[in-house]
Design brief:
Blueprint (H helix, E strand, L loop, with lengths): L1 H17 L4 H17 L1 H23 L1
Length: 64
Amino acid sequence: MIGKVIGALVGREIDKRDGQGGLKGAVIGAAAAGGLRRLGPLGLILGGAYVAKKALDRRRNRSV
């Protein structure tokens, strides 16, 4: 279940890059969830670290 949540967050972060929203982020998030699940605990750590870095970067940009 945690892998699906992290996959959804990864898809959302990737989809925010182009700003159009929609299906692309959902598809990439689903693929990321599958890939992260195959990597096991390392995949969950990598996916979580990616989402955390993007959130930290966004927070830093907001405070400036």
